[in-house]
Inverse folding.
């Protein structure tokens, strides 16, 4: 059962990240995703400080607001201060992440977090933290419930707003010419990404979540030319990585979250080298014939 | 700690402290120097990817050699840094994925590998793993004099290469195409610069840690860029900011020894950025606000002067005293602003106060004629040379009259053939000399 | 005769540099109009101002005598082809279908009517057989035609196109020109940013000649003159340039 819950947690997380990551990738915002995942750390530290983290869903949203703050600061540096974009991103997320680490170290006695958790989470402990009903029956791990709810929110948002997501990602200017407020779509996506990185934090930490956000969508992108297929494949590769990762970690006796990221990367490399028609190896064989 | 300890630290009286501070200052300075090129090439986030990608190299080097000798670990770091850059290049060149995705992929994949190896080593190796975590968040306090000597040596190598190849590096950063057309071996220089970058990052992570290394590459350069447009000064400031961050970062970490150095260095750096963004001349917020206020003041007082002229023109007497209320008929602003404008003009001796009213001085009359002249000249130029309908030119002239310099006025007069009448049939005042 | 487009006193700056300066003209209804001018003369900015994509510093624009928001459904915009990523995983049909999106139906589903409109537009640009292709598999000219089909699906009265002939082969150029002519003959208004002088006189019956300022606007046979071309392409006015520099140097607002 332990194995199931861990893999299931990974799969839920991978599915949420895969869907959102597909849009991040197509909007050329992969590094913004990276920045957000680092920058929510002070929010998470504060949430731990106030209430021992995710006992309260509102606190999660509060922590996710740090993701929004990140995008606002980046925007401000970029547009108003006219700092070049890559520097705006780098300056902002390193500041917020450093702030988070300092908070965690300074309030080490009140914040039940260590640096290992920040780096790669504690997915192995997920099955130990169960939710019980009034009658004392267990209804599964807390993380599974939280990630499940998060996935449902994302699914609703993506399915209901499909046209908006696709239009604002493909041709923002045309969308605006139709009178559509593209900033609303932009910030909704940022909020969903922030929320996802916050709820994933306990399982995989602040840094490895990027692997889930970017790598499976990139693999899917190489193998598909339809957005719907790409989103579905992202989820499939994400889930596959979490299964492979679990067993890899078991074999090596190493971090599960790290192994999941490595598995995702392996699948990506396979696609990069061996995908039909354009794969590097395939091209090379054709060339030498 | 007592204030004596503090002073001892700041003056570097203790040998160990001297070593630690020297180490971080050297590391901060060299990483920032190399970062200035990453910044100029708009590739600073690649530095972030390299920093994360160094982890597997370091852990593998440790697992293979079984020692924490910085030289071995550095070699491991260089190899995995290079693999990461190659992966980014392969993704960008061989697929439809764009650079930012490639960076994020390399960063998270290599870091994942690093975490797997690190946890594997922790669970399986006999060796002592403590100390490797200093590469994650930095721990300057554990540096010894041998380390510092090594860092200093590497920093010298780094500076040496950069000084020798400075011009080529600047050229490929500024205009790659031009560098190719000049017959420069761009590939070689790019390879060299990338290698130096990896080396600097591998060095820098011992002070700031790999997770926050991006700050040491990006932030000093981004801050320095606020202050200057000159290449030499930009690089000098970048290095200086990196060193300052190293110095104060190690100081803060010395006062709170249980904390990693990295976050404090980043805090110092972020503070430098904040100061730069606010106070830098020209680009800073304060300077921009001051400029804006100055412009608005200029607009206000010139409009007040113009108002004097307009009333005088209809009533055929220009040097008579006018009340603020009267002046505001044309200005259409708040009476408070009119009075403010008048008091500024009074200080400039262009108006004098007569009871509740003000009158133009001789200087004021000349000035008001000048502004009306510029306004009408510009209106004429717009209608004559830009073929704009006379009913649309007033708005434009209201703004442009304030920026016409004497040279432009001279040109206008010449191109319009010394005109007398504006498009609305008003006389264009001449400046009496 | 009523005017399809009226531009009054339009001034736009970018980073404090004036891009359009006091531009004013009117286009009567039912014309096929070209905007010409050298690189950086504000042609694209002109179109973006009409579509409300940039915030002007001064002036006003009226479409069919009304503000843009009142008549948005009657205006259709075709951005430059390079403005999007053609590797995007989306099919020709899906792109054209976007022409039917509005602020209101964004959360809805495609109706039968929407689909018919999209198919009809594809038919018009002769790309029906490519409807399920991924957009990166098309040639430059075909990609341009997809963009035009998207605008056609909108069933607007005013079509605004940014460089539809750029990077397009001769056959596609002829096909696109024929399409635009056809649209005009159906009584639509067409406004095109164009970079090629040779064909400009041939393609358009009405011309706007821009170089930051308006040089001329009117029927082609009247304005396409040696002296107007000279002022359009003969570099910017010296004084205008010096003032632009002053504005930027002193961060002075171009409108009070």
């Amino acid at each position: 059962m332990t194995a199931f819950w861990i893999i299931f947690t990974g799969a839920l997380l991978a599915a949420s990240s895969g869907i959102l990551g597909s849009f991040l990738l197509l909007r050329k915002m992969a590094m913004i995703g990276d920045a957000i995942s680092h920058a929510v750390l002070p929010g998470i530290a504060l949430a731990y400080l106030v209430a021992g983290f995710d006992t309260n869903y509102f606190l999660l949203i509060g922590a996710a607001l740090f993701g929004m703050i990140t995008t606002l600061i980046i925007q401000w540096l970029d547009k108003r201060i006219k700092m070049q974009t890559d520097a705006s991103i780098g300056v902002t997320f390193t500041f917020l992440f450093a702030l988070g680490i300092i908070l965690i170290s300074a309030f080490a006695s009140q914040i039940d977090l260590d640096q290992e958790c920040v780096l790669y989470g504690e997915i192995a402990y997920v099955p130990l933290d169960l939710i019980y009903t009034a009658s004392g029956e267990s209804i599964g791990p807390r993380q599974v419930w939280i990630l499940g709810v998060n996935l449902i929110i994302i699914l609703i948002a993506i399915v209901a707003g499909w046209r908006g997501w696709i239009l604002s990602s493909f041709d923002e200017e045309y969308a605006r010419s139709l009178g559509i407020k593209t900033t609303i779509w932009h910030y909704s996506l940022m909020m969903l990404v922030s929320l996802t990185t916050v709820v994933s934090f306990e399982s995989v930490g602040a840094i490895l979540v990027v692997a889930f956000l970017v790598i499976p969508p990139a693999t899917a992108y190489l193998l598909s030319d339809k957005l719907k297929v790409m989103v579905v494949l992202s989820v499939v590769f994400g889930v596959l990585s979490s299964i492979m990762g679990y067993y890899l970690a078991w074999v090596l006796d190493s971090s599960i979250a790290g192994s999941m990221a490595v598995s995702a990367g392996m699948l990506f490399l396979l696609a990069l080298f061996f995908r039909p028609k354009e794969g590097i190896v395939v091209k090379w064989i054709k060339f030498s014939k | 700690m007592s204030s004596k300890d503090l002073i001892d630290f700041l003056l570097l009286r203790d040998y160990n402290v001297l070593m630690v501070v020297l180490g971080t200052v050297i590391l901060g300075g060299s990483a920032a120097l190399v970062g200035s090129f990453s910044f100029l090439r708009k590739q600073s986030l690649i530095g972030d990817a390299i920093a994360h990608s160094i982890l597997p190299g370091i852990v593998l080097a440790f697992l293979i050699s079984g020692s924490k000798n910085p030289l071995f670990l550095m070699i491991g770091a260089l190899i995995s840094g290079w693999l990461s850059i190659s992966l980014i290049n392969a993704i960008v060149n061989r697929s439809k994925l764009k650079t930012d995705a490639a960076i994020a992929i390399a960063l998270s994949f290599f870091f994942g590998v690093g975490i797997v190896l690190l946890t594997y080593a922790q669970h399986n190796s006999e060796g002592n793993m403590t100390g490797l975590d200093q590469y994650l968040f930095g721990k300057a306090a554990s540096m010894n004099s041998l380390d510092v000597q090594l860092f200093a040596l590497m920093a010298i190598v780094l500076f040496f290469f950069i000084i020798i190849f400075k011009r080529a590096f600047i050229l490929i950063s500024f205009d790659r195409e031009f560098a190719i057309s000049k017959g420069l071996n761009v590939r070689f220089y790019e390879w060299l610069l990338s290698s130096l970058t990896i080396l600097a990052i591998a060095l820098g992570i011992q002070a700031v840690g790999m997770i926050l290394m991006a700050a040491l590459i990006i932030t000093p350069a981004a801050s320095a860029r606020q202050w200057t447009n000159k290449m030499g000064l930009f690089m000098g400031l970048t290095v200086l900011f990196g060193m300052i961050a190293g110095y104060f970062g190690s100081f803060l970490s010395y006062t709170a020894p249980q904390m990693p150095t990295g976050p404090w260095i980043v805090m110092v750096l972020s503070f430098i950025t904040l100061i730069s963004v606010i106070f830098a001349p020209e680009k800073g917020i304060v300077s921009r606000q001051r400029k804006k206020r100055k412009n608005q003041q200029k607009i206000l007082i010139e409009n007040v002067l113009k108002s004097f002229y307009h009333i005088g023109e209809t009533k055929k007497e220009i040097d008579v005293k006018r009340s603020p209320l009267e002046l505001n008929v044309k200005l259409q602003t708040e009476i408070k602003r009119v009075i403010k404008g008048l008091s500024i003009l009074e200080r400039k001796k262009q108006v004098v106060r007569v009871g509740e009213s003000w009158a133009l001085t001789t200087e004021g009359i000349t000035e008001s004629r000048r502004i009306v002249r510029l306004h009408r000249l510009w209106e004429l130029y717009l209608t004559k040379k830009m073929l704009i309908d006379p009913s649309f030119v007033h708005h434009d002239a209201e703004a442009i009259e304030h920026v016409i310099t004497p040279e432009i006025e001279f040109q206008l007069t010449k191109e319009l053939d010394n005109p007398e009448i504006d498009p609305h049939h008003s006389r264009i005042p001449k400046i009496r000399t | 005769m009523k005017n399809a487009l009226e531009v009054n006193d339009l001034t736009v700056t970018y980073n404090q540099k004036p891009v359009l300066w006091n531009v004013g003209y009117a286009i009567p209804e039912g014309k096929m109009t070209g905007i010409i001018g050298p690189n950086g003369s504000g042609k694209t900015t002109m179109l973006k101002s009409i579509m409300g994509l940039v915030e002007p510093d001064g002036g006003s624009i009226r479409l069919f005598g009304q503000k843009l928001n009142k008549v948005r459904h009657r205006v259709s915009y075709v951005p430059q082809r390079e403005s999007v990523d053609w590797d995007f995983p989306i099919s020709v049909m899906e792109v054209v279908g976007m022409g039917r999106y509005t602020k209101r139906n964004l959360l809805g589903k495609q109706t039968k009517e929407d689909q018919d409109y999209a198919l009809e537009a594809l038919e018009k640009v002769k790309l029906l057989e490519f409807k399920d292709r991924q957009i990166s598999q098309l040639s430059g000219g075909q990609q341009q035609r997809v963009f035009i089909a998207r605008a056609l699906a909108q069933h607007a009265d005013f079509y605004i196109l940014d460089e539809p002939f750029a990077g397009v082969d001769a056959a596609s150029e002829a096909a696109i020109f024929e399409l635009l002519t056809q649209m005009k003959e159906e009584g639509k208004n067409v406004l095109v940013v164009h970079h090629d002088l040779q064909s400009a006189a041939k393609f358009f019956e009405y011309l706007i000649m821009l170089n930051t300022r308006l040089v001329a606007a009117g029927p082609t046979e009247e304005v396409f003159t040696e002296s107007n071309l000279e002022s359009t392409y003969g570099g910017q006015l010296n004084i205008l340039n010096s003032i632009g520099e002053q504005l930027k140097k002193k961060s002075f607002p171009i409108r009070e």
DSSP finds 14 helices and two strands in chain A. The longest strand of chain A covers residues 138-141. The radius of gyration of chain A is 19 Å. Chain A has a mean pLDDT of 91.
